[in-house]
# Entry
Amino acid sequence: MLNVLITGCASGMGRGLVGAFSRAGHRVLATGLTLESLITARDEDSWPSTVEVRKLDVRSPGDWALAVGEVTSRWGQLDVVCNVAGYLLPGRVDVFEPSAVDAHLDVNTKGVIFGTRAAARVMVGQRSGHIINIASLAGLAPVPGLSLYCASKFAVRGFSLSVSSELKPHGVAVTVVCPDAVQTPMLDLQVDYEESALVFSGPAPLTVDDICRSVLGPVLRDRPLEVTLPLSRGVLARVGGLAPGMASALEPMLRRKGRALQARAQAKRQKE
# Structure
């Protein structure tokens, strides 16, 4: 049985991971920005008694210290931390507000950094542990229209790869997971933004279950340094990162495809 701390548990990937870890027999501290939203998720998903809920603002080092301390005092050891909480608001550089800069970097980047730091301070002493940071394929290749999100996720990936080497000698693994678009409320939000057309240019979005299968399967088992999901889109993202000129040349075609799929999603929503 593992003792697991997960962020962003009120919805999306974080919420799905709470269910997946608890069904697998592990103890989970499920955290989120408000206790009310966590209680709603707990009641709707019938989380078992092995799941505890706690308010955690990932932007606060003090909140992180308290949450990690609760796991160790309650269960004796912290085995896994999943940094899932995220923020995304599409927008071009000539349009977005300064507040959007703060939101992306504070939640997506600093939240992961503070969480990794808090976990590492305990896990190094234990000589064991696994930190799983959720980045994105947008951390591998440029996505026009999501420049702030890309910046935050490029930073998450670079930070995770760096601290992995720092922590490995102490028995602590760090894995950065880079998924394509996942069917969550964050993706639903982007349907109405023309700037997000490239997000919809691939095949069907991943599901939360796809992420859970990867995390509770090969990620936990093999403790890899980096995982891209799906593999085919991961390869494409790596090519785009290595050859941004090629990515720029393909952008108009991919954007047209993405806009068409966005229009279908909008039409489907209107019918429901």
